[in-house]
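Hey,

The postdoc asked me to send both predictions to you directly instead of through the lab channel. I've kept everything plain text so nothing gets mangled by the mail client. Protein one:
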Amino acid sequence: MRMNTKMSDMFMHSILVVEDELDIQNLMCLHLSQEGYHVESAQTGKQAYNMLSERSYQLIILDWMIPEISGLELLKWLRKDNTRHKNIPVLFVTAKTNPEDIVQGLEAGADDYITKPFDFSVFKARVNNLIKRLKFVSTLTESGKAQNLKFQLGDLVVDTSAHKVFMEGQEITLTVSEFRLLETLLRNQGKALSRQQMISFIQGEDVNVTGRTVDTHISILRKKLGKYGKFIETVRGIGYRIGFI
């Protein structure tokens, strides 16, 4: 299924919807098309894999329980270092609602997670905010030198202009959410940021996200940063902080 947008200048924002329930898939595509996005869809993991092998997208909306290749396995493939899709935002939309499933999905590399059934106004808000992050990254790359900062802590290097993190010379793969979380902590060194402040930066003020989501991202980020994860400090009753480097 392919839907054309009414706004030709929005074709750069191409979204792949991977959902095996056709009624839900059609509604997702309809709402996204009405928002001005170019939308393509797949019903199975194998079909999505083949489409992703041929072309790129700005966002992937992914169901977990799909035929042939599960959404989780497809996500793990997307996040491998040798794929050109490793930094593409992924929104999980699934009926798996257990907290351990949500944690597993985020740890595998999902940038956000919506459980079924869901409200389509919330769905569109989540999609729009993930797309806004891409604009934010482009702004960082194209803006003046004041924005092109590079932070270094021992062998850990965070290059905001390239949107990359290196540890001991090896690139660490972070989701867009994880990178933005790390970046905002580094840009506010020494300051204790509340969970609500971080939610506003990562998700946007118009999306209802819990502090628990931030805690999960912080936990995953600490693991990925290895020995440097300890520099992300928990500030009791407030949130998190990175001390002066």
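Protein two:
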Amino acid sequence: MKKKRMNYAEFKEALKDALQTRFLGRAEVRFQSVKKTNDTAKEAVVLWKNQKEPCPTIYLEELYQGYQQTGGFEKYVEMIVQICENPLFSVKEQIPKKWEEVKHRLQMRVINKNWNTELLKQVPYKEYLDFAVVFYILVKEEQEMIASVLVNWEQMETWKVGLEGLWKTALRNLKKESFRVESVMEFVRKKLLRETVDPGMAELLTKQVEAGEIEACLAGLEQLHIMTNLGESYGGRAILREDLLREFAQEQGGDFYILPCSVHELLLLKDTGRVTAEELKKMVCEINHGPGMVEPEAKLSDSVYYYNKETDRVEIVA
């Protein structure tokens, strides 16, 4: 008989009990609200080995989503234990103290300037259109676990580098990053197959793809393309890759709209004159604010952007 999956509240309590047993006398297990981008917050589990140094923040919703898809509750307990016990993920100790050590680890993320006013009071950033470009240090990346730290003013002072130095270095690293552009139809088709964990369902989807049934369901999206990085994480920074935008314009033979799907992806649509910027803005707003569409902290913008092939520039058009 198949074991019934726990609901979110049950999962939380079971996780707390399991972690308290594993770290008995060595750490205190807490649930706390952690501020995220767009003035949102997410619930996290944090283990405090002492009152000054917590283990890395682990978000409960992501854990629960994984548990819902795959089961294996103990796997997630072990993952948390590994993160907290492994010195590789002691983020504070891994932050480089010298600028020469930071350079190759410095990344940028594009967020909405107007939706992050409180955050932007605390960190250095560069303005671009109606975005704010903030800077992160990639501290450690191992398998599916990534540890990164938002750059603050104190770190800049320690490194003796200014905002322009951060910007030029992060931009240089961005230009080395691999991105891909593919039709939305192809992207969704691959994602459906990749994220389906049930073998029977995967086989069914494969047959539907081969029979063209999924393509039929996505009819009308053939003009839409999606741009993101290989990890599909904060791929919205591709809007700063002028070379990739220029290349897409050449391939499409003209100007195109850029729709901010989320902080992780951009949608590109060739301007054929069949749709207006105002119509596209309505679609973007529906995606951003419709129920269950985009996670609040992942929203990038309600604006519509336009790449002009002649001027080689991106501008806001709606």
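Summary for protein two, as requested: The first strand starts at residue 28 and ends at 36.

Thanks,
C.
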